[in-house]
Task: structure prediction
Amino acid sequence: MALLELKDVSMVYNGKVRALDGINFSVEKGEWVAIMGPSGSGKTTLMNIIGCMDKATGGEVILDGIDLSDVDADKLTEIRREKIGMVFQQFHLVPYLTAVENIMVAQYYHGLPDLNDAMTELKRVGLEDRANHLPSQLSGGEQQRVCIARALINYPVLILADEPTGNLDEANQNLVMKIFHELHAEGHTIITVTHSPDVGREAQRCIVLEHGRIKS
Amino acid sequence: MFWQMVKGALIRQKNRFALIALTVALGVSLAAAMLNVMFDVGDKVNQELKAYGANITVTPKNSALLKDVYGLEAHEYLNESDLGKIKTIFWTNNIVAFAPKLDGELTLVDGSKIPAAGTWFNHEMTLPTGETLSIGVVEMKSWWKIDGSYPANDTEALIGQKLAAEKNLHVGDTLKYTGGEFKISGILSGGGDEDNQLLVNLSAMQKILNVPGKIGSIEVSAITTPENDLARKAAANPDLLSQQEKEIWYCTAYVSAIAYQIEEVIANSSARPVRQIAESEGKILEKTQLLMLLITALSLLSTALGVSNLVSANIMERSRELGLLKAIGATNLGVILLVLTEIFIAGGVGGILGYAVSLGLAQVIGTTVFGSAIVNNSAVLPIVSVLMVVVLLVGSLPAIRMLLSLQPAEVLHGR
Ligand SMILES: Nc1ncnc2c1ncn2[C@@H]1O[C@H](COP(=O)(O)OP(=O)(O)O)[C@@H](O)[C@H]1O
Ligand SMILES: [Mg+2]
Result:
């Protein structure tokens, strides 16, 4: 059975903006899929639905055997906490907590914070020596790597990244892509959203959106 | 982790939280000070009212007139035999106690003069109805403190503490005067004129002044109904009332009605309410207390508004950060708990500060407005604490609503 399966998913905002229209695809465990498309094509909307931050207005989304269309908001939060690791285009960190504390917050809401585990994850993204720096003391690329470490800390079954390199220069983009390659090699399931063909090519498979439909 | 987050938020946004603390401090200091003053001044005035004891004095009609108009001391007397009639008036059950008084002077053997008065201490009296009662100052002046005991007979006397100190007299001493001697049975502290007087049995005084069966005045203590317009109109002149009004007035326990009825039974007398001033003071006090209560309520209301503004602005500023917490798995309850903890810590610090300030503020209000130091009431701290919690919760309501409707998907993609 596929890890993620979308059947005829549609999303209509405010009863009129049709952001997604009849989306069908599935992602197998261990796959790295890129979702591509021009701005406004519905990529973020799709990410929000897969990432349990929003509910589709039509169709079925099945994640790790759970049908997301018939659970309530609290349950959705719980599934997100248990199964998803998210990385955003903007590097969202809690500004008054250090790098390692930002990772531990995710542990805290999941279960128990553990400094050693958090440090291990920081080491994986090459930032063990910046553990006690505040986000404001880190570069954009470093902040995004902290975000990736945070996304990994609770052993998610699916890593979702919305334009993870959108705000980065080329050197940092390469660093981040290298981490994704390593994660893929370790067997993680990854979905990255991007409008850049360069980044899209790194994935095993591409799904291209246009006006809320799959183009190819 | 939770406390690390709280600490981080408090330190990073210390200006905002300082403002919240300050707002709460202002409200709490004002509220606590007002409550303290209110309780204390209320207590003080009540004590004062009680200390009056008698609320009606009965004097000979002409003497009252002469004294008031010409400032003359006239030797007019009431009859001791009329005293029992006080218990025959319509409002007899409202008369709690009364005591006759006969003022005079004693010339001591060294030639100096001291004020002296005769009264009933605990006099067994047979009423015209046949009942026997014990009547006198023991019951009426319940707050008097006696070192020793009340005089048991005509040869014993009670001496006011100031006079005793002046003449260096103690319990058991003998006081010699030109016509005989008294044994000091007790030293009296009452807080009024009596502290400068020698008090003896009425009959002893009547002998000294040579006025058998006469008394100078009567103090009456009666339970009364608070005055209203009708009572005030009647007090001015009962004859101006209509028949119906007069009936209502006469059959209500207004102090003026009781005084009027006493005048009716005691020959040649003038009965006057003595507590009128104190009572109007009481009324002003009630209004002042109401005003203070209003100020307290308003200051707490404005504190709640201030807090709600500050907290809402704070949440709005941090919507990304709080949305992020939700995105990485915090429940609504978790986020609300975090924010409320921050608010309550800031508010608590402000509250402690405000309470400390209020103690000083109460003294300032007490001395400048009421001319007396304020004793801090122990009930104020718990009351103010509860009020503060309510204010903080109410102030946080809009922020909680915002938190509940905060969608991580919306704030995190920077739309
Ligand atoms: N919360 C929303 N409310 C209303 N319309 C929205 C909302 N989110 C997205 N849209 C609309 O849905 C369409 C797809 O948006 P989005 O998924 O952000 O595209 P992309 O991420 O590919 O740029 C756009 O037309 C956008 O205006
Ligand atoms: Mg987008």
